[in-house]
Amino acid sequence: VQPLWASIATNAADGMVSAWLPTTQGLYYKDYKGKFVDLGANLHGARVGLAVPTYMKNVNSIGDLK
């Protein structure tokens, strides 16, 4: 992930839409602040987690994933 932030900061890349802020990639945001233009969030209310299809009747926890 850090190479992508460095690429944006040095104009080697034009942009990215995958920054998980403020927690996951907040340190990179802080390190490179002023070297990129923050256009704001592109997704609101996103949730992170595991999902399984409904036909997996016996999967109710991470421990059930074998």
UniProtKB/TrEMBL annotation:
A single Gene Ontology MF term assigned here is: transmembrane transporter activity
This protein is called Glycine/betaine ABC transporter
The family database entries (InterPro entries) matched by this protein are listed as: ABC_Gly_betaine_transp_sub-bd
A cellular component term, taken from the record's GO annotations: ATP-binding cassette (ABC) transporter complex
Sequence ranges assigned to domain ABC-type glycine betaine transport system substrate-binding in this UniProt record: 3-66
> Lineage of this protein's species?
Bacteria, Bacillati, Bacillota, Bacilli, Lactobacillales
